[in-house]
Amino acid sequence: MKITVISYYIDTAQSVVMSKVKGEIAFSDMLKHLHTLLQDPQFRPGMNSFYDLTQCTNILGELSDLSAFTKSISDRNNDLPNSKTALLLPSGNGKLLNLVKGIVMMTSASNIEHRYYLDSQCHLAYQFVGLQYVENDLHRLNILRRVNEENHKTSQIEQPKKPISH
């Protein structure tokens, strides 16, 4: 069994959730992570989100799990303030890019505006969620450091991974 860890840090001053995914992830992992965030006392409706998927190698799972995830996003946000989510992807992983494009299309009815960016467009992803991107910016580096520290908050999901069913 593999353990999927989605690390995150909530920057209440900037009103943004910074998350990082490593390795393979399943649609069900994404749904569990969403539930973890909603239960975090620092999370506030309307916060923007930045997901660093540059070290994500694949998204696995059943299409029914993907449907449940996108339905959860759409259903939960009908009464919530508008917010934005940036998804930063690795260059050269066409499969991951296509999967994320599909997820963005499937969540387009929610109050969360999702956009994806390649790792070379990190500055645009930061701007999209309201963060100022400055090369070697101390505040940004501190946020990313916190996401990677031992005391960061995580959603740990242990389960067998299945390939996507068509």
Blueprint of the fold:
Blueprint: E1 2-11, E2 16-26, H1 27-39, E3 48-60, H2 63-76, E4 83-89, H3 94-106, E5 112-118, H4 122-128, H5 138-148, E6 153-159
Parallel strand pairs: 2-3, 3-4, 4-5
Antiparallel strand pairs: 1-2, 1-6
Helix pairs in contact: 1-2
Q: Could you characterize what this model shows?
A:
It is a single chain. The chain is an alpha/beta fold. The protein has one domain (about 1-160). Helix content is about 35%, strand content about 35%. It is built from 5 helices and 6 strands. Helix 2 (about 65-75) links the parallel strand 3 and strand 4. It starts with a strand and ends in a 7-residue tail after the last strand.
Mean pLDDT: 77
* Main β-sheet, spatial strand arrangement: 5-4-3-2-1-6
Put simply, the count of helices is: 5
Distance between the termini: 23 Å
The low-confidence runs, each spanning 5 or more residues with pLDDT under 50, are 156-166
Question: Helix share of residues?
Answer: 25-40%
The largest sheet, given as strand count, sense and whether it forms a barrel, is: 6 strands, mixed
Q: Shape, please?
A: globular
Order of helices and strands: EEHEHEHEHHE
Backbone CA Rg: 15 Å
Number of strands: 6
Question: What class would the helix/strand composition place it in?
Answer: alpha/beta
**DSSP strand content:** 25-35%
- The domain count comes to 1
